[in-house]
Automatic annotation (TrEMBL):
The lineage of its organism: Eukaryota, Metazoa, Chordata, Craniata, Vertebrata. The keyword Metal-binding does not apply. GO terms for biological process: lipid metabolic process. It is found in: Membrane. Coiled coil: none annotated. This is GDPD2 inositolphosphodiesterase. GO terms for cellular component: plasma membrane.
Length: 515
């Protein structure tokens, strides 16, 4: 195996040292017997597969960031430990992808320099561990968080065209080390096999856009109106969730609907709270340590008013945006208390925004009374009933009779034999395809999807024609005046043809040059 022109002995030695973990000079007499064996080729193939496997996991890790706050809340409910686990995920993923990337680059450079691919046993063990860790991560994702597979499929509508260009570019660059290997090896069968595999992969990539669909491939004059923003528990990145401060911050973000959760105290006062326990968003463990594990509905309104519903936001920092709060906002945060539904309705009425809520817990033995008490507060508040969006399914018919002006929002898709027309639906964004969103829009059915935090996801749903989205990041989505990208089909076709032609010419050039 001869050194190609331009590959100096020092460079070859520097490449061999980290890859083989031993100081081997690149002189021929020092390298007698050091050749790339079939076993070495197998390990290189394994390295390449581990790199791809880790790269796919990196893509998944970035996609699931949209929903990672839910995972943080889940861990807190299970372990009573708050940590932004997305940082742990990203750091671990970055380490794995960096390690496999460096090894792969070293191997490709060694091949171009005509050096033996003698992967050290330490690297072999670490690569096996990397593959096992990533496999475990995918397995855990499939078992505990299966809906994220749907999120990944939706993400391809936003990234598909660019992933295609990137993959074509990466495979095109592989033409150099592949040509180098083919011209050096004497095994004709192996040459033919590698060429056939490479050519088949490139042809598949060149034709891949035939299967790529995205709602954002459209003419600009066909773009639907920007979806309205629904504040998920207010503006939880800017203020403690389900507080009057959070509602006001949502109003400042031009949110049209304040989404919240309502529970009823032991003495019959509806109040805003998401969790069944008070431990995550109040200081109940300090004020009522012996009762901290009780359900929120076990406390009377006087007890609930003693709790601090804001300081936890500064202490735990559920979102990175907490660090950028102004001193005045920090001071206001420490003054927050659990608001009653009546207070929230009054604030919504003054701000002229709608309020949408769930009534929890739906399995409570006194749930019908919860419905009646909540309806009473709504009717007494004086808020225009069309500004109230009712989510709970329990005793919905009673609600229609007592407050016919309240807008009924359904947490399901419409049925074929619907007795009454469904005008509003509220669903996870994974549960509706772009085609279904368009159908509902054509039938004048308002579709709200939750929880949408990332601009790429908001862009896909915007292009699909969704009516509104529930978000934690209203301050980010508010600033978006246009989807991240929008391509006319003719422009995308031109990009596709140009990329494929350039790639083909570069591959031909690589094989001619390496010969």
């Amino acid at each position: 195996m001869a050194d190609p022109p331009g590959c100096c002995s020092t460079c070859a030695t520097c490449l061999l040292c980290p890859y083989s973990c031993q100081w081997i000079t690149a002189k021929k007499e020092k390298r007698k017997g050091l050749r790339t064996t079939k076993c070495d080729c197998s390990w290189f193939l394994f390295l390449f597969c581990v790199f791809l496997f880790t790269l796919v996991w990196l893509y998944f890790a970035i996609i699931i960031l949209n929903d990672f706050h839910n995972f943080n809340e889940f861990i807190f409910r299970q372990r009573k430990l708050w940590l932004d686990w997305s940082l742990v995920l990203l750091i671990a993923t970055a380490v794995l992808i960096s390690y496999s990337s460096v090894l792969l680059v070293l191997a490709l450079c060694l091949q171009l320099c005509g050096q033996p691919l003698k992967l050290h046993w330490v690297h072999k063990i670490l690569l096996i561990l990397t593959a096992l860790v990533v496999a475990a991560a995918f397995t855990g994702l499939g078992i505990k968080w299966a809906e994220e597979w749907k999120s990944a499929r939706i993400s391809l509508q936003a990234t598909g065209p660019f992933l295609h260009i990137g993959t074509v570019g990466g495979m095109t660059l592989l033409a150099w080390p592949l040509a180098s290997f083919i011209y050096r090896t004497r095994n004709t069968g192996l040459k033919v096999f590698l060429l056939l595999v490479y050519c088949a992969a490139m042809i598949a990539l060149y034709l891949a856009p035939l299967g790529i669909t995205s709602p954002c491939i459209m003419e600009e004059n066909q773009l639907p109106p920007k979806p309205a923003l629904v504040g998920h528990r207010g503006a939880p990145m800017l203020a403690p969730e389900n507080t009057l401060m959070s509602l006001q911050k949502a109003v400042d973000c031009d949110v049209q609907i304040f989404e919240t959760d309502v529970m009823v105290s032991a003495d019959g006062v509806p109040f805003l709270m998401h969790d069944e326990e008070l431990t995550r968003t109040t200081n109940v463990q300090a004020v009522f340590p012996e009762r901290a594990a009780l359900n929120s509905t076990a406390f009377n309104w006087t007890d609930l008013q003693q709790l601090d519903a804001g300081s936890w936001f500064l202490e735990r920092r559920p979102f990175p945006t907490v660090q950028s709060l102004s001193p005045s906002d920090r001071n206001e945060t420490t003054k927050q208390r659990i608001p009653s539904l009546g207070q929230a309705l009054e604030a919504a009425k003054q701000s002229n925004i709608s309020i949408m809520f769930d009534l929890r817990p739906e399995n409570h033995s006194d749930y019908q009374n919860f419905v009646n008490v909540t309806l009473g507060v709504i009717l007494q508040s004086g808020i225009p009933l069309q500004q109230v969006l009712w989510l709970p399914d329990g005793f919905r018919e009673d609600v229609k009779q007592q407050a016919p002006g309240v807008q009924q929002v359904y947490g399901r898709k419409r049925l074929k034999n619907e007795k009454e027309p469904v005008l509003h639906v509220n669903l996870p964004y994974q549960d509706m395809s772009s085609e279904e969103i368009r159908e509902y829009r054509q039938d004048n059915i308002s579709v709200n999807l939750y929880v949408v935090n990332q601009p790429w996801l908001f862009s896909v749903l915007w292009c699909s024609g969704v009516s509104s989205v529930t978000t934690n990041a209203c301050q980010v989505l508010k600033e978006m005046e246009h989807p991240i990208w929008l391509l006319p089909s003719s422009t995308y076709l031109m990009i596709w043809i140009v990329v494929d032609c350039v790639s083909f010419l570069v591959i031909i050039w690589a094989f001619v040059l390496m010969k």
